[in-house]
Amino acid sequence: MSSTAIRAWLGPARRFRNTSRSMAMAAAEGGSRTTSRDIEGENPHPNIDIELFTAATPNGHKISIALEELGVPYRTTRIDLTTKEQFEPGFAAISPNGKIPVIRDHAAAGRCVFESGTILQYLAEKTGRLLPQEDDGRWDVLQWTQWQMANLGPVSAVELRPFRSRVSRSR
Questions:
Q1: H helix intervals, 71-152
Q2: CA–CA separation, 63 and 162 (whole Å)
Q3: pLDDT above 70: percentage of residues in the chain
Q4: Hey, which of 29, 41, 81, 166 has its CA 20 to 30 A from 89?
């Protein structure tokens, strides 16, 4: 994997600095698969210590984007789907359905949360952001989040696949 691909996988570094660029490069060369994203300055969420297990897929990106938007520092462990790493016993212990993404919150006694919609809700509740507390707003956000998980997410991945291949052939 090239350094450009690693940077694309790590995502934007707007208000974060990647403290382990060398680790990311080592991962590209078959070394460590773990990288971390730290906040510059004081951590606004000291009650959260997230480790994200993911791959470069639309579902995997959802959680990285949420963590970035929420300003939560986190560590990422890349799961290699091409070698079926998600079905190994170690991963099955944290994700019984054998799918990514999964987070482990070390600040909550190592609680593991799987399924992207559930992870988004967990992060929103832990940070007190993105999910209104009043009933009307809360239910609006939850129903649209669930709609996206069941409809837009899977459909867009299937629908965009032919478009991506046409774009890459035209370059």
A1: 89-92, 116-127, 135-147
A2: 25
A3: 64
A4: 29
